[in-house]
Structures are given as C-alpha cells and as structure tokens.
Write a structure and sequence with these properties.
It is a single chain. The strands form four sheets. Strands 2, 3, 4, 5, 6, 7, 8 and 9 form an eight-stranded mixed sheet that branches. The N terminus and C terminus are likely disordered. The protein is globular. The relative contact order is 0.10. It has 24 helices and 23 strands. It is an alpha/beta fold. Helix content is about 40%, strand content about 20%.
Length: about 750
Amino acid sequence: MNRSFDAGGAATPPDRLAATITLDEPVTRVRLVSPTRAHALEKLGIYTIRHLVTHFPRRYVDLSSKETIASAVVGQQCTIEGQVYAIKLKRPKPRLQLVEVTVVDGTGTLIVTAFRQPWLMDQVSAGDRIAIAGELEFGYGFKRMTNPYLEVLAGSDQAQGKIIPVHPACEKVSAAWMRRLVGNALAATAGAYDPLPLDLRVRYRLMGRQAALRSIHFPHTMDEVAQARRRLVYEELLLLEIMLMSQEREREQGRTATSHVVDGVHVARLADALPFHLTDEQRQAKDDILARMAAPRAASHLLLGDVGTGKTVVAAFALAAVADTGTQAMLMAPTEVLARQHAASLAPLFDAAGVTWELLCGSTSAAERAAVLQRFAAGTVDVLVGTHALLEDDVVPKSLSLVVIDEQQRFGVDQRRTLLEKGELPDALYLTATPIPRSLALALYGNLTLSYIRNRPHTSAVRTTSVHKKADRGRAYDAAREALSRGEQVFVVCPLIGQDASVRDEKASRAPARTIDEEAYEYASISIEDDADFDGDNVSAAVQEASYLSSTVFVDYEVALLHGRMPAAEKQQVMEGFSQGRIQVLVATTVIEVGVDVPNATVMIVEDADRFGLAQLHQLRGRVGRGSLPAQVHLISASKSDAALQRLSAMERTDDGFELAAFDLSLRREGDILGNRQHGASGLKLVNVVRDGKVIEAAHADAAAILEADPTLELPENRVLAREARMAFSGGVTVQGG
C-alpha cells in the first residue's frame, strides 16, 4: 500500500481511510499469511484483518523473574532459560500422549512434561535454546514443570526482561507465529481512524485505539495491559449498545405502538379469579409491566424470577390487558410440554376473566390448526399460546400488540424478531428463570426494562443437593430407591445419554482442547442449552440406557424415556404417565422438556452435571420439591478436574438462584458470557459482565445520548463509529452514516 506523509511526518487523511478499510480485508493480505496459515486461522475464527488484530492474548508471561535451574524455588513461578538435552513422545495410556523435554543450563536438569501436545516434537529439537515459564515442581528426583509456557529462542534472543503475550494458537500456527502475524496486521492498519468520539476519549481518559491494540498485544508493563483493556472493553460495549439501540429504533421507525388499557374489566376479573393473593414482589412486577404497556411507546421488558416465583401469573395480567384493549397477544414457550402447561394453568383464569385463548403446537392436527389460525386472523382469539409453531408464516394475527416469550434465552434473536414482526409495533415481555444482573441484560438487549421476583410465594419443601464423583453414584441410586419405596417419583437427567458410556465419561472428564496453549478451562466444556445440542446423539443408545436402568437399578419400578426427537404425541403420553404416577422413574436427555409440576417427584439425579451451567442446574432442581415432601438432588460428574467439582459444590452451598447466577458468570471467560444462541457474542472478546458492570452502564448511557443527538449517526464525528458498529457485529443492524 502506498503511503504519503506531510511535512511533519504524519500520515495524510487518505492513508488513514485506507488503513481503516484494510481492517475488513481478508487475512491473506497480512504479510506472511500463506494460504495454509489462512486455513489454519479460519479454525480459530480469524477471516479478516479485524479478526486478527482483535485476537487478544489469553494470558501473559512475565519473564522478569528469571532463575537458573539450581536457584529456582519449588512451588514458585519462574522463568528458566536452557538447552534441550532430549525430547521424547510418550503414550502412558492409549488415549493420552505427552512430550517429555529434558532441559539443562549448567546448574542442573529440569524435566518439562507437556500433555496432549505431540506437535512439540516437530517444533523443538535437541540442542535448541528455550525459555520455559511456569510453576516449579519436584518429583522423582528432578525439578519439573507441567504444561509450562515454552518458546524456542532464536539467535541472540534473551528471555529476561520481556512480557510475552500468549495468544490462542493452533497446531499449524504456534503462539510465536501468532505474535508475528498480529504484529504484521497492526502494521498494515497503522493510522486507522479511531471510532470513539474525541469527547468520550477525553472524558474517560482513554488511550487511542491503535495505542491500545499495540499495548494489549505487545505490552512493556502489565499496567499498559490494564489501560489498553480498559479502552477496548469500553469500545466493545459502546459499539454493542449502539447496534442494539439502533436496531430497536429501526424497528420503531414509522410505526405506532399501542397504549394498552390496563384497568379494564378483564384485568379486574382476572384478579378476582386468583385463588391466592399476589406477593408484594409479584404486585410490583405486575404494576411495572402494566405501566410500560400503558405508555405510548413500545415496551421491552424482562421479568426475571427464580424457579417457582410465579412469573406466569404476573404475565397473565399483561395478557388480560390486551383483551381489554381489543387487540391480541402471543405467548411462545420453547417446548410443547411447557406450552401445554401454560395453557392448562392459564385456562381457568382466562375463562373466568373472559379472555379467549387457543393453543397451537407442532402436534396440532391440520384441521384444528386451520381452524385456530382462521379464528386468530379474524380477531376472535385474544391470546394464542404455542411453541415455535407460532413463528410459521401462516400464523397471522389481526392486531398483535403484545408478544410474551417464556424462557426467552432458549430462543435466538432472529426467532424473537420474527414473532415481533407479526404486529406493527407490539410490546415485548420476556420471562426467564435464569437470573442475570442488570449489566448482562443491558449487554444482551440494550434498551430493556427489568422486574425481579426474588422470593417464592410460599415456603417450599426442604431440598438438599449433593455432588458425587462417578464412583460414588451408588449413593444417589440408593436415595432414589428409598424414595420410590415410599411411593415417590424420580427424575434421571442424562445430558449425554445418546452416547456410549465410555465416550460420555471421556467427554465429561476433560474440557475440549480448543487451542494448544490454553489452560484447562472448565466453562468451555459446558454446552448443553437445549435439544439442538443433542444433534448427532444415538437415540437407540438412549433407549438402551433407559432399559439398563429399568432392568438393574430400578428393576421393581416403571421406567420411561423422554428425549427431544420423540413424536409429540409420545412425549405427551410419557409426561401424562409420569404426572399421574403410572411411571415412577423418568429418564430424560434434558428436563428442559419436563416443565410439568409433579409434586410427588422428590429425587433428581443429574448425570454428567458438569455439562450444565449452574443456572441451568438450578432450574432443573426446581422440578423437585414442588410439593410438601422433602426433596434431594444428586449431581454426578465423571470429570477429574477439581475446578469442575468445586464449581458444582456451589449448588450444595446455596439454593438462591441469583447468587448462583452471579457465581456462574464470574467463572466464565470474556466472550463466553452471552451463550451460543445470543446475537453479538462474537463481538465481545474482552467484556466480563461481573467485573465490567459499571462500564456497561456508562456505555449504555453514552450510546443513548449519541443516538438521541444523532439518530442515524450521520454527523461527521460519528461516521467512523457508525461503520464500526456495522462491521464489529456481522449481521447486526443497518446503521446509516459513515
């Protein structure tokens, strides 16, 4: 690329524009990125130069504490520089490979053990000078390091006095090569425009973007890293909030929201029909929601409540207000079981309040479906309850003014948008039993109002939770058999039920090796969110597992299986059998499908519990102890990781869903906070919602102020910001300007 300079040596504006555009060119434009390396980078999600310059280090190695092998202290972190005396590949177990490197430095011998990194045999040779950084151990007569940072030193390179960034790498692109490529990418984009308006940089005393990128990738001190991260976290969040708010403004443009009647006859009759009094929290949540619905602007409200706190009855008032307004509402649940449960629980209240309703699911017959859709299109149905079936194009309301989405985190942003587009500008009410802090809600949704219900309406039965290693699972089965002998019922949840037991245990016992230099990171292995995560499972193996439990552990009881790929009618038959007590033990791939209240179910066994997040496990255990009988939850893990078992032990310490959710979030790495269904996740690489809550609040307020003054981001000072909001979140929103 040709560059010109002014008399002072600064790049001229055309060069700055070219550097800015270069950010979104293919990564092959970076020097030394061959087609082979480009293919390897794609596996790490790196396709453009922007992806490469935002491929941030996972950690840093401070080589300032350099020691000799003799002077290094066992139990402490240090850096040792030495020569490779020998390197060997060993296989102590059929599925386990390790590389053993013997290092000498004239003062002693150090043994380095690198697990599951056979490619080191191609990268390190006897006679190489290397730097090793890690915690020193002692065993079998030698000082040792296990999975340390290791780098081959070329020429006169010295380990001392450097801070080395450790970027996520892969077999074809080592950490050392990744540093080289990132440096070349930074050089190719030098002089690019800074997207943050100058007044915000001055107000918060933020580094310029190019300086921040250089400092986070190649710092001289760890304080530089902190200042760079501070700048880049704010930028990520401001861009996300700009995108989310612009998206909402675009949806509202040229459309008129409904000002709902919230004190009409249907709402009053619903209140009279309740067989109990609302708690103070439920009443406050109801009043908050109705006030939002009465306003002339479209509401977007999230109702958060722990399992069993009565979110559905609060939502019922919003649905009744729609009937008073003469418009229509849709209530969507993630599964047919849950949709039918809502219909069953709301039906007597709606009937008493004079609210007309229908149920539409995937199993609804063609004739019945046609009749329901006809009545809904004619406007004679106030509330349509259903599943993903509501998203179909032929579901056309006459006048939709409210969308209620239960367990909204189970739906992707496109599904939520599809439902909202069925009305001119309907209000949106989201329900979730996964407690999240306000900071995460803002990061996920931008302009969103919230109500919390923290306490259950009545004192629940005593419920205890115990964590067991796989070898101790017999204790859980003993507890289940005791409960069955008393006439109670049992849930068995097997998230990896469709796999052979040996494969399941192997998968549960270790986190996936996503990169060669990444430490064991427990949260990375948690992936079960809904039935989509069971694609590829062997259903016949699931049947065999249920058969095994039926013929061995629970031989004297009726055992049934429930999984996502069963026909809807068969699912319903199984659930009815369990609800009515004909089935004593229900084995399920996930109790996301099991939303029916069964007060007689008192024991839950969760196999491979480390595959779930804590908030999900808390939801699962909310399915037992719903009656007056004491309940037990047994979490079984095949993981050999102390960290995984320690995370699960939080379930033993508290029954508070909000406390667990906060702890769960604190364990996640940056970039893992949004879940695999949520839009924008790929754009947040540094944000931690627990640690960065105040930054999220500030970015939210700043984005609102910017869009209030310049709704389409057309002012000159906002054009680069507009472009960045487009490019940073692919498929995000069409913002104008720039």
